[in-house]
Amino acid sequence: MESYEIRWKSSAARDLHSIDPQQVSRIIRAIESLADNPFPSQHRKIRGSVRDYRIRTGDYRVIYQVHTISGVVIIYHIRHRRHAYRR
């Protein structure tokens, strides 16, 4: 199986700076695992969206899109579950 490229939007990088450093390493490991399998068993499609997915990492949610043709996973947001689905 081919590996996907992980791309970070600036919004996701900003979100990461506001998270407790103990949680950051676990979140980054979960994101890096998306390169091997962008659709892990715990992924969920976000309702009302065409290509947005989320994975759960503790109390945080990683919102991302998968572009299968170009082999890219784009990380858009990393937010606490209370704030993850607000627009």
UniProtKB/TrEMBL annotation:
Keyword annotations for this protein, in alphabetical order, are: Toxin-antitoxin system
Q: InterPro entries given for it?
A: RelE/ParE_toxin, RelE/ParE_toxin_dom_sf, TA_system_RelE_toxin
Under the heading Gene3D superfamilies, the entry gives: RelE-like
Domain of life from the UniProt record: Archaea
One Pfam short name: ParE_toxin
Protein name from the UniProt record: Type II toxin-antitoxin system mRNA interferase toxin, RelE/StbE family
Lineage per the UniProt record = Archaea, Methanobacteriati, Methanobacteriota, Stenosarchaea group, Methanomicrobia
